[in-house]
Amino acid sequence: MKIVDPACGSGSFLIGAYQYLLDWHRDRYLEDGADDKWPKQLYQGPGGEWRLTIDEKKRILTNNIFGVDIDPQAGEVTKLSLLLKVLEGETDETLESQLRLFAERALPDLDDNIKCGNSLIGPDFYDNPKMLDLGDEEQYRINVFDWKSAFPQIFSGDNPGFDAVVGNPPWLMAGYYVKDSLKYFRNHFEAAEKKFDMYYLFIEQACRRLLSQNGLFGMIVPNKFFHTEAASALRKLLSTKKWVRTIVDFEAEKIFPTATNYSCLLFLDSETITNPRCLKARANLEIKKEFEIPWSVLGADSWYLYDQPTRKLFRRLEGLWGDLESLSRRFGTGVQSGADSVLIVDASEAEAQGLESEILRPILKGKDVRRYHTSDKTRLLIFPYEVRNDEFVILTEKLLRQRDVVYKFLLDNKKRLSRRVWFGKGAKELSGKWYGMMYLDSYKSFTAPHILTPSLSDRSNFTLGTGDLFATGTAGVTSIIPKSEVHEDIKYILGILNSSLINFYAISHSPVFSGGYYKFSAPYLKYIPIRTIDFSDSEDEMRHSRMVELVERMLVLQEKLTEAKILGERTPIQHQIDATDRQIDRLVYKLYGLSDEEIAIVEEATSS
């Protein structure tokens, strides 16, 4: 069993693999032993427990455990850690006694097992003559590695390659990490498309070039590759080759406290699997749900890993009515100042400085938009525009000077504002003035009836638009502007979007981000299935009216809750809000024709 970690770092995964093999061998020898005759590979410790001999531990280590890392210091740490594992349990493990054992025992040389090099770049890197001209420092940093010559004992014989590839490869975007190797990667890896991450390449390298014919792959990687556009080539490769054996998805569970990505365990197999398995798990590996995934739902497009009943529910919803995009004139994208810390001020600060109010506009950020309400408008944007013929027009510097306090404030920050860049262009190029906005949606997109949502949210948080400006970007806001010919009331659409059913659909069709947040921006909103109304059907029309009535009640209750200051006032209002929410959910279940089993799927998912 030849096991390799191609990005071994300080050796944590190899230590785990080695410990597993030690336990496996010990248990097998115990099964083979008898009271009068025990295998020579075992001896009894001081407490009577059976242990593997040091010679047997050394044999297993040198025969089974291999690793590569680009950092030579990491490789040395790995060797030391593995050698200490050989001696583990032989002494009281004080440093003095460990050093004595090092001196007394003939410990193995691990130079043939743990190598230093770039696991992804082979000697064909120098097929490009320009690469031969690189300086010593560049050559050292790239650290070309030849797997076949480094491990001749592995890559020879009838079934060359490792039996298992394990590890935790770098979770880094290649463009920031290895700019000088991008061309090589794009020429040698199918997964090296767009803004690819380094771990894509470790997955492909293992399956294409490192594994033996019956080898197995298992690594922990970010689960965002299920959805991100840059990983479409990787998803296509894994599904076309049918390499996927099992996925253990931790969803929004934190595995690494300091990592901003969420993770999954990806198990691949060179043998074709009938249907891959998916396990939804908690951080402690407690399995919440287990099911098969048909190959038909895996491809270059986003991977949505649901069980069959959930997949059937979503497919039915998508096939009966139109989606949100078909009802929308457009999705609004707000305003981008490019210097929020300068141009967005607190209302009290603006008043204290005497900033002219006609140049200030309330602005909403993502955290200000909640279900059926927006937070207090305490943040103001310095907005040097006026409205002419239903269009925003930037003020000339001459007109701006008439607001002398604001003008002086902007002048004091001119150097900072002039340096703003958005998609490679400066403020003057984008707006016509050094003090203009970096991006500004049309005036009508803010004033037309619309629904707002945070672009990144932990759940459905839709409310009616206020007519105020809102920020664009990941931490910003997206608006939904219905078509004028849509017959459904905007409040009906709002109730649908805030329901448990659509909340479940929306978060199930988005990658998960740090803090348990999901995408509610246009590319994800547009596919949400919206139940339209047949106004010639009196029962349908009555349900529409009932939804509008419930949403109007919810809007009033949320306003009352905001105004209530003491717990005694807030508690009964919150009870009414919760009851109204339940009524909206029941109405949505009827509108979409959900069965009791389908309702149970939604409520189990949204309550966990």
Coarse morphology: globular
The CATH class name of the domain at 326-530 reads: Alpha Beta
How far is the N terminus from the C terminus? 41 Å
Roughly what is the average pLDDT, rounded to an integer? 91
Can you count the beta strands?
30
Largest sheet: 9 strands, mixed
The CATH architecture category of the domain at 326-530 equals: Alpha-Beta Complex
User: Helical proportion?
Assistant: 25-40%
3D structure, described in words:
About 35% of the residues are buried. A hairpin with a 5-residue loop joins strand 10 (about 275-280) and strand 11 (about 285-290). It contains 25 helices and 30 strands. The longest helix has 26 residues, at about 540-565. It has about 600 residues and is of the alpha+beta class. Among the domains are: about 325-530, Adenine-n6-DNA-methyltransferase TaqI, Chain A, domain 2 (Alpha-Beta Complex); about 530-590. Helices cover about 40% and strands about 20% of the residues. The model has no long low-confidence stretch (mean pLDDT about 90). The strands form nine sheets. A nine-stranded mixed sheet has the order 5-4-1-6-7-9-8-10-11. The radius of gyration is 31 Å and the shape is globular.
Helix-strand layout with pairing:
Elements: E1 3-5, H1 12-32, E2 42-44, E3 50-52, H2 54-64, E4 65-69, H3 72-87, H4 95-104, E5 114-116, H5 136-142, H6 147-150, E6 162-167, H7 174-177, H8 182-188, H9 198-210, E7 211-222, H10 232-240, E8 244-249, E9 263-269, E10 277-281, E11 287-292, H11 308-320, H12 324-327, E12 328-332, E13 335-336, H13 340-343, E14 344-346, H14 347-353, E15 360-364, E16 369-370, E17 373-374, E18 379-382, E19 385-388, E20 391-394, H15 397-401, H16 404-412, H17 414-418, E21 421-422, E22 425-426, H18 427-431, E23 439-440, H19 443-447, E24 451-454, E25 456-457, E26 463-464, E27 469-470, E28 477-482, H20 490-497, H21 500-508, E29 512-513, E30 517-519, H22 522-525, H23 538-563, H24 567-591, H25 596-607
Parallel strand pairs: 1-4, 1-6, 4-5, 6-7, 8-10, 15-27
Antiparallel strand pairs: 2-3, 7-9, 8-9, 10-11, 12-28, 13-23, 14-18, 15-18, 16-17, 19-20, 21-22, 24-26, 24-28, 25-30, 29-30
Helix pairs in contact: 1-3, 20-23, 21-25, 23-24
